[in-house]
Amino acid sequence: MTSSRDHESRLLTLAVPKGRVLGVLRNHLERLGFGADAFDGSSRRLRFHASGPLSLNLLLLKPDDVPTYVAYGAAEMGVVGRDVLLERNYDLYTPVDLGIGRCNLAVAGLPEDKARYRSADPLRVATKFPGITRRFFAENGRRVETVFVQGSVELAPLTGLAHVIVDLVESGATLRDNGLEVFEHIEEISSVVAVNRAAYKLRLEEVTKVLDILKVPE
């Protein structure tokens, strides 16, 4: 999926999610030529221009919007969580894993519900990742009913809203605090650099320069 806009007619654009990831990437973005104004939490600006050797624009977006901007060519590349990328199912090139925010996407539930997890048909799953959930269980020959829950998903098995949940698990502390445990791992998650495939082909030299800076470890 690409935009009809001419990639050669404008500055290369990098989309980055606002919040914690932006802070982690600060040193990398400074090396790309972006100033302190891009990291000013009180500012409402969402677009910045690099003053360094590269001609580059920066867009600050909500995490879920980054792959959409890249897929449609409004940004040539972006930093995005693999969970968001998999949920949106866009055909983007992901040449660099930044290793930021490593965790697992997993199925979890109450220990006493393990038997029901194996036998329920359909299995009711509460999650903010319905696309990933349906694909995962379909590949395993399971019928599921997904219930979209944006937050506090751990409550779903406790209240009977769903048999299990599919959610991001880092330390597992939140699950344990609510009496849940991991039943099955789906995917390892971290932040990656996603690149529009047309941009990677047409502007390889520029894209490579940015990738080389982003993948340098701190």
Question: Could you characterize the architecture of this molecule?
Answer:
The chain has 218 residues and is an alpha/beta fold. The protein folds into two domains: 7-101 and 191-214, D-Maltodextrin-Binding Protein, domain 2, CATH 3.40.190; 103-189, D-Maltodextrin-Binding Protein, domain 2 (3-Layer(aba) Sandwich). Helix content is 31%, strand content 31%. The chain is built from ten helices and nine strands. The protein has helices spanning 20-24, 26-31, 66-71, 82-88, 114-119, 130-139, 155-159, 173-177, 197-202, 204-214, and strands at residues 12-17, 47-49, 56-61, 77-81, 93-109, 123-127, 144-148, 164-169, 181-195. The chain has a nine-stranded mixed β-sheet. Helix 6 links the parallel strand 6 and strand 7. The two termini are 33 Å apart.
List the topology elements.
Blueprint: E1 12-17, H1 20-24, H2 26-31, E2 47-49, E3 56-61, H3 66-71, E4 77-81, H4 82-88, E5 93-109, H5 114-119, E6 123-127, H6 130-139, E7 144-148, H7 155-159, E8 164-169, H8 173-177, E9 181-195, H9 197-202, H10 204-214
Parallel strand pairs: 1-3, 1-4, 6-7, 6-8
Antiparallel strand pairs: 2-3, 4-9, 5-8, 5-9
What share of the residues does DSSP label as strand, in percent? 25-35%
Dominant shape: elongated
State the strand order across the main sheet. 2-3-1-4-9-5-8-6-7
Identify the CATH class of the largest domain.
Answer: Alpha Beta
Structural domains: how many: 2
Q: pLDDT below 50 for ≥5 consecutive residues: which ranges?
A: 3-8
What's the end-to-end separation, in Å? 33 Å
Sheet with most strands? 9 strands, mixed
Backbone CA Rg: 20 Å
Question: What is the number of helical segments per DSSP (H or I, 4+ residues)?
Answer: 10
Q: Which structural category fits the helices and strands?
A: alpha/beta
CATH superfamily label of the largest domain: Periplasmic binding protein-like II
CATH architecture assignment name of the largest domain: 3-Layer(aba) Sandwich
Strand element count: 9
Q: If you consult CATH, what is the topology of the largest domain?
A: D-Maltodextrin-Binding Protein, domain 2
Rounded mean pLDDT score: 91
The helicity comes to: 25-40%
Helix-strand sequence: EHHEEHEHEHEHEHEHEHH
